[in-house]
């Protein structure tokens, strides 16, 4: 007969391996930030001094505190297993459930990132460090105003226009930020258009496609409309942050054995997702 402790160790091993082997595409959009508190404050957002010639003393820049903070939230998933199944070596029946729990746990962080992407044009839900919606028509940088929210269907000419805009963005010092879009992000409704825009060498009339192989494609199931996004994911800082205190921590308990004759197996995460640099992302409504 198998004992609870042995089963718990086996389930944990199955969970951890599956968790480590699972990839969430939405995670590519976010910088992972390790958290050691209930919340974290991002004073560095919007503060990136450029190199300049050193004449006299150093030109020291102070971080401007935009007051952007992100609180961690607790999430869990739990299953119950009858102790009789554990005692008579029936745990193999639950191996797929533990594996699926691990997959769901790993992808959940990506789902948080995908959800804030969807909410990013909302002035309340999508508020970023400068007080504007992450995707807005009036981001102010120095004396300039930028709109990283636009319209237009997913096609080559609109991608080029969006890229040209992103490449023009300057920082507070007036120096170009060096934004270079690397990824096209959309939902399944735009899959055909995305393939036409970046995977076909020639357009319908036979002319050369200017965006052929220009961007990598990320298709997120959470995006259910025709909106599409162009992003620079090449830098250490990504458009979003995934703040992690605990991620997919596997737990087990047999405290209910006497009263209910079952064991509990589950996982928990203590994390959140938030907005980093709007300068690295552009959204089109797709129409």
Question: What would a concise description of this structure say?
Answer:
The protein is α/β, with parallel strands linked by helices and 287 residues long.
SSE string: HEEEEHHEEEHEHEEEHEE
- Biggest sheet strand order reads 7-13-10-8-9
Based on CA atoms alone, the radius of gyration comes out at 23 Å
Counted beta strands: 13
Spatial gap, N to C terminus: 63 Å
Look at the structure and give the mean pLDDT. 89
Structural class: alpha/beta
Q: What is the helix content?
A: 10-25%
Main β sheet profile: 5 strands, mixed
Oligomer: single chain
Overall 3D geometry? globular
Portion of residues in beta strands equals: 25-35%
* Residue runs with pLDDT of under 50 for 5 or more positions: none
Helix tally? 6
Sequence-ordered SSE layout with sheet pairings:
Elements: H1 4-21, E1 30-34, E2 39-41, E3 69-71, E4 73-82, H2 83-87, H3 95-118, E5 139-141, E6 144-146, E7 149-150, H4 156-167, E8 183-186, H5 191-198, E9 216-219, E10 228-231, E11 240-253, H6 257-260, E12 262-275, E13 281-284
Parallel strand pairs: 1-11, 7-13, 8-9
Antiparallel strand pairs: 2-3, 4-12, 5-6, 8-10, 10-13, 11-12
Helix pairs in contact: 1-3
Give a verbal description of the structure.
It is built from 6 helices and 13 strands. The protein is of the alpha/beta class. The chain is globular, with a radius of gyration of 23 Å. About 30% of the residues are buried. It has helices at about 5-20, 85, 95-120, 155-165, 190-200, 255-260; strands spanning about 30-35, 40, 70, 75-80, 140, 145, 150, 185, 215-220, 230, 240-255, 260-275, 280-285. The longest helix has 24 residues, at about 95-120. Strand 8, helix 5 and strand 9 form a beta-alpha-beta unit. The strands form 4 sheets. The protein has a 5-stranded mixed beta sheet, covered by helices on one side.
């Amino acid at each position: 007969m198998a004992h609870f402790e042995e089963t718990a160790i086996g389930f944990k091993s199955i969970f951890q391996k599956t968790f480590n082997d699972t990839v969430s595409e939405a995670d590519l959009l976010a910088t992972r930030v390790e958290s050691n508190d209930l919340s974290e404050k991002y004073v560095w957002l919007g503060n990136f001094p450029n190199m300049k010639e050193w004449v006299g003393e150093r030109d020291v820049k102070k971080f401007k505190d935009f007051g952007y903070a992100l609180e961690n939230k607790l999430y869990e998933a739990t299953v119950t297993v009858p102790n009789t199944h554990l005692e008579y070596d029936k745990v193999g029946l639950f191996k797929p459930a533990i594996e699926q729990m691990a997959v769901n746990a790993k992808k959940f962080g990506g789902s948080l990132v995908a959800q804030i992407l969807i909410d990013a044009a909302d002035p309340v839900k999508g508020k970023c460090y400068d007080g504007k919606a992450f995707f807005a028509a009036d981001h102010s940088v120095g004396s300039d105003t930028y709109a990283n929210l636009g319209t237009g269907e997913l096609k080559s000419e609109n991608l080029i226009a969006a890229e040209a805009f992103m490449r023009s963005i300057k920082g507070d010092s007036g120096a170009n930020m060096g934004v270079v879009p690397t990824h096209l992000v959309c939902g399944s409704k735009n899959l055909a258009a995305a393939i036409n825009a970046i995977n076909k060498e020639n357009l319908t009339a036979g002319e050369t496609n200017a965006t052929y192989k220009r961007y990598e494609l990320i298709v997120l199931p959470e995006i259910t409309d025709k909106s599409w996004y162009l992003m620079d994911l090449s830098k250490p800082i990504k458009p979003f942050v995934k703040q992690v205190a605990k991620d997919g921590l596997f737990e087990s308990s047999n405290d209910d054995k006497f009263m209910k004759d079952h064991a509990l197996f589950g996982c928990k995460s203590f994390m959140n997702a938030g907005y980093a640099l709007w300068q690295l992302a552009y959204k089109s409504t797709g129409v």
